Amino acid sequence: MGNSDDMLSMNNIYEHDLHDNTGNDCPDIAFIYDDTDGHMAEIAELYSYTEHPEFSRNVKAFEDQMESFNLPPSWQKLTDEQKNSIILKLMDQLDMSTKSVRMKAARCILYLAQGCWAEVQSDSEQQHMARSNVMLLYEMGIFTVFVELLSLEIENATTANVAMRKVAVSLADSVDLRVILSVLYIITEVIRNEITGELDEYKQVVENFKQELLNPIDDEILIVKLLVMITRFCSGSAPHFPMKKVLLLLWKISLVSLGGMETLKKSKNDYRGKAGLPPMTDDTLEVGKSMRASSPPALASDMIDNQNPKRNRPFRRVRTNDLLQESLMKQSSLDEQEQINMDVETPQSESEEEISEYYRTYDDPTTLNAETGTTGNGSDTKMGNSSKPDWMFSPEPQLRIISRLPWTPKVRQKDIDMFLDVSRTKFIGYTLPDDRESLAGLPHPIHESVKTLKNHMYISLADMQIKKEEEIARNPVSTSEGEIEMTPAEILYQAILPNLPQCMIALLKILLAAAPTSKAKTESINIMADVLPETMPITVTQSTKLGIDVNRHKEIIVKAVSAILLLYLKHLKINHIYQFEFMSQHLVFANCIPLVLKFFNQDIMGYVGSKNTIPIMDFPACVIGEQPELNSDSMVIGDSAPYSWRNIFSCINLLRILNKLIKWKHSRIMMLVVFKSAPILKRTLKVRHGLMQLYVLKFLKIQTKYLGRQWRKVNMK
């Protein structure tokens, strides 16, 4: 124990020295990765700041309806019978042929779903009323009615033709669609929040909602309808579609239908049990939560050099480009025509790796003080929560003390076969193909090694599914596939299969357009149609607000697209490996790998710490109570967030997508090398978050052997 304490003290000295020398290190980020952000944060991200004037139109529609019903304009004062009667009357108006009458009733329902904010005094009151109103609206059948309204509005050729003739599509072209999508999103998000809540009051409502989402409405499920909207938008036939709201609704509906992290974990163990495999005991996300972020420590020799500056040697650099040219393997498969054209640019200065730059391995929590429960961070500054509301931040992660390796070692059958072949060739002089049992002639240590390898052999669910498919292909008559279980993932796959390639290309096009590194091009799709006002701002304050709104809009789109892609990949991989491979193949064909690298080829520290938000403009703060005048001072009221939740969430999602695409795929790993990802990934390591660094280090590890001896010498001391 004395040695470990000394080592911990030495690490603290190194970290302290490093902070003194650089002064620009990122403090630890107290971020917990989850399916979504807080409920109120997710609701607030639905609305753009330029939509603020439309809130008053919802109240006006409600007051006019109450006046026509000869009732006071106060929802709280009405009895349950009166509320039910009003909703039924509004549903009758939604069926009328006159569009103005339909949309006035729709705005009234939107006001109810928003929690009747004009009648409350606090955020908590608004949230409580929104919850009760949404449950009432759903039980009365409003969700299905609005899905039919959405179908009607999608097929509105007049609106589409007007938008296509315009030079610049603005917020005014998607007014009706945004009202309909907002109602659907609020209902979905409130019911989704009930799944993670502790109360079982609406348990049956939640189950009914899950079933309804997977049942066809107008011959197609809602997920397919939204994906068709996305493909039409990207093809240019419907430029007025509000993509942010469509993507957010698609994400939340997919999350409710398929399930989040806990559902994935349970499903994987269930599928493994049916295949005769033991359950999984390790969870990367759980282990990642307990990992401390790493930072580049100073070597003892560097510390001596710093104390004797006159004896410092001349600074040497090694150019990564020169090394890559020597070590890269050419592959003709990478020369295929790209469907989405992009260049991953590596600045000259960034591609030069300093000799002293390297990263230490994961600090095992076993070195932490178990008695005091301290985290062992010493004087490290934590990016903790501030005085903002709880829903703006994830709780600070607690490091668990682990008395073993973070993961159980996994050995594939292929690894054992290779080990036996090498051992037999070395000690006997010949190999025994397909013989995995005979150890005759091999020394005792080899016997022990084989025994240890077999004890840790891991058979994946994918291997079993592939084995079953091969057996069916060999014996199609005697081997039956059996009845296919219609799980949510199976229903989704069968529904999107005919248009899956187009859907993947459309999602990646939107992701490319929303990436911070994308350049404005005249031929690219316009994802700003639902954020730009009809008239451009004329004051500095209005221009600043619009600039923040545009950046916030892009960040939310990246968050939604990355979450959708990851969710589909995870569920399809568990449902059947061939479904996962089919989707992965089309993502790779559409250049998903260079797109993700292009995304990270930016000032990632600035992206993670961006403050593209105006708290007083977020819903419901923008409509409850007295509103301060918007100026440079009021814009930062409550804006003390040390990091952007959605941006870290997006980064981790994109890294996990990349991991899914390249894992055990040699040609795709080579794409990382060809696109010079090493310096990009190393810059990403500056973000001090354990889970994010874990995935980055995975990518560096799998391509290390292709980067050449000099690169390893420089970066792996």
Keywords summarizing the entry:
mainly alpha, 717 residues, 1% strand, two-stranded parallel ribbon, 30 helices, disordered N terminus
Describe the structure.
- By secondary structure, the chain is mainly alpha-helical.
- Among the domains are: about 40-270 and about 485-590 and about 610-635, no CATH class; about 415-455, no CATH class.
- About 55% of the residues lie in helices and about 0% in strands.
- The chain has 30 helices and four strands.
- It has helices at about 1-20, 40-45, 55-70, 80-95, 100-115, 125-140, 140-155, 155-165, 175-195, 205-215, 220-235, 245-260, 260-275, 285-290, 300-305, 320-325, 415-425, 445-455, 460-475, 490-495, 500-515, 540-575, 575-590, 590-600, 605-610, 645-660, 665-675, 675-685, 690-705, 710-715, and strands at about 30, 315-320, 350-355, 380-385.
- The strands form two sheets. A two-stranded parallel ribbon has the order 1-4. A two-stranded antiparallel sheet has the order 2-3.
- Helix 13 runs parallel beside helix 22 (about 540-575).
- The protein starts with a helix and ends with a helix.
What's the β-strand tally?
4
Query: Beta-sheet strand percentage?
Result: under 5%
Task: List the uncertain runs.
Answer: 1-24, 297-304, 309-339, 346-388, 390-394
Distance between the termini: 26 Å
Q: Major β-sheet, in short?
A: 2 strands, parallel
Question: Structural class, please?
Answer: mainly alpha
Strands side by side in the biggest sheet: 1-4
Shape field: globular
Helix content: 40-55%
Radius of gyration from the CA trace? 28 Å
Oligomer: single chain
Tally of individual helices: 30
Arithmetic mean of pLDDT: 81
